[in-house]
């Protein structure tokens, strides 16, 4: 009996420790560098949109409901689901709503800098152009009022570091939290060279409206590197920072070409062979790590065997990201928690990991300076919260 009581206490202690760690990960200020807008939609919103389209007879709601609620999907199933998302999100007002909600969700868990990426979409039937799609996204971001949203490099609040708000409120601090947001325009691997070039030119046109970089994404078994290369090269010549989804599948020729291209950041890097791994490490290209996404889509065999550990131990520049927090039912706080629970990182190490991501953002030096202040404030507060003794 005594043994059972001890076990109960052990179990209670474990549950309490997990809860405390999870709360700490939420309180930690975080930088999100790899999040797809339509992959971050709340399930409740998707279901609501599906219901509306079902009522109009555009789709069969019951079929869609099963797909949305299904756990554990293969890579092709995920991309089928994205096609469904695109049917659900084809009008401007819906895009605006989604952008607003996604930003609110990231802000709610103390993301202090967010690079949200999305594929600008043409949809003639709905009167949507890539430009009007992006305008709808920006409208949604600007509509957020629960936090102070800073979207432009020219925003004078960027320099106002004295007023940068701490991200947790321990002592009745009622000031609004602040979040810096920037947009990356994604080139979908299904696109032609000309469509990809349009996206790069749009990024240039919208650079004063929060658009800061280019991403290459989409189904990794579709398309050829040579198709996107002219557009990526054009972006490079224009000085637009680039991040590329790399090595989601073992396409040797493409991985090699991507590493040779030397973008500012790489996402995933799952299926690299020894030589490519060596090349990546010597390149020091920062990597966007998406633990849950990689495990759920088979890019990594398990959390324990995820290549995060290798890169982290090699002190390779990296940042934890969600990829598609709606699709994979995760959050950035959860990704930090998983790193602690799986690889045994301490709170000071998690803090350092979050703080170091500031170096890899695409926004300018002023934003970096402000974010460094945010982390300085947070360090004090988090230390008060749990006496973590964060390293200098
Ligand atoms: C689903 C899956 C295999 C996730 C792994 N990670 C991904 N790999 C490549 N492209 C992606 C991934 N997640 C999202 N995307 C891209 O982002 C789009 C959704 O966001 P948006 O419509 O661009 O706003 C998808 O249609 C796809 O083109
Ligand atoms: Zn991605």
From TrEMBL:
Residues 29-373 form the Adenosine deaminase domain. Keywords: Hydrolase, Metal-binding, Nucleotide metabolism, Zinc. It catalyses: N(6)-methyl-AMP + H2O + H(+) = IMP + methylamine. InterPro entries: A_deaminase_dom, Ado/ade_deaminase, Metal_Hydrolase. GO terms for molecular function: adenosine deaminase activity; metal ion binding. GO terms for biological process: adenosine catabolic process; inosine biosynthetic process; nucleotide metabolic process. It comes from the Eukaryota. The keyword Metal-binding applies. Its cofactor is Zn(2+). Belongs to the metallo-dependent hydrolases superfamily. Adenosine and AMP deaminases family. The keyword Metal-binding applies. This is Adenosine deaminase-like protein. SUPFAM superfamilies: Metallo-dependent hydrolases. Pfam families: A_deaminase.
């Amino acid at each position: 009996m005594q043994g059972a009581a001890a076990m109960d206490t052990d179990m209670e202690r474990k549950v309490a420790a997990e809860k405390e760690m999870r709360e700490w990960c939420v309180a930690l200020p975080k930088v999100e560098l790899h999040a797809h807008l339509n992959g971050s939609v709340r399930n409740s919103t998707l279901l609501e949109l599906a219901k509306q389209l079902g009522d109009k007879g555009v789709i069969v709601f019951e079929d869609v409901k099963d797909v949305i609620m299904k756990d554990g999907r293969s890579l092709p199933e995920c991309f089928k689901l994205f096609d469904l998302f695109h049917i659900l999100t084809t009008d401007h007002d819906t895009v605006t709503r989604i952008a607003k909600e996604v930003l609110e969700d990231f802000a709610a868990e103390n993301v202090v800098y967010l690079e949200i990426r999305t594929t600008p979409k043409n949809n003639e039937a709905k009167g949507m152009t890539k430009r009007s799609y992006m305008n709808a996204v920006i409208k949604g971001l600007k509509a957020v009022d629960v936090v102070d949203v800073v979207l432009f490099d020219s925003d004078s609040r960027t320099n106002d570091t004295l007023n940068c708000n701490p991200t947790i409120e321990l002592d009745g601090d009622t000031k609004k939290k602040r979040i810096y947001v920037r947009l990356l325009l994604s080139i979908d691997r299904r696109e032609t060279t000309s469509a990809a070039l349009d996206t790069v030119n749009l990024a240039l046109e919208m650079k004063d409206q929060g658009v800061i970089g280019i991403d290459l994404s989409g189904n990794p078994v579709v398309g050829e590197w040579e198709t996107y290369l002219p557009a990526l090269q054009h972006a490079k010549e224009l000085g637009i920072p680039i991040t590329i989804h790399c090595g989601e599948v073992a396409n040797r020729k493409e991985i090699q070409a991507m590493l040779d291209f030397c973008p500012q950041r790489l996402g995933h890097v799952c299926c690299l062979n020894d030589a490519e791994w060596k090349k990546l490490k010597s390149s020091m290209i920062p990597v966007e790590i998406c633990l849950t996404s990689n495990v759920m889509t088979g890019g990594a065999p398990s959390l324990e065997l995820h290549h995060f550990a290798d890169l982290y131990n090699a002190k390779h520049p990296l940042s934890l990201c969600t990829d598609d927090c709606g699709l994979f039912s995760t959050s950035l706080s959860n990704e930090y928690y998983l790193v602690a629970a799986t690889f045994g990182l301490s709170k000071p190490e998690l803090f350092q990991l979050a703080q170091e991501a500031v170096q890899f953002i695409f926004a300018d030096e002023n934003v970096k300076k402000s974010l460094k202040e945010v982390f300085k404030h947070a360090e004090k507060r988090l230390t008060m919260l749990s006496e973590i003794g964060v390293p200098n």
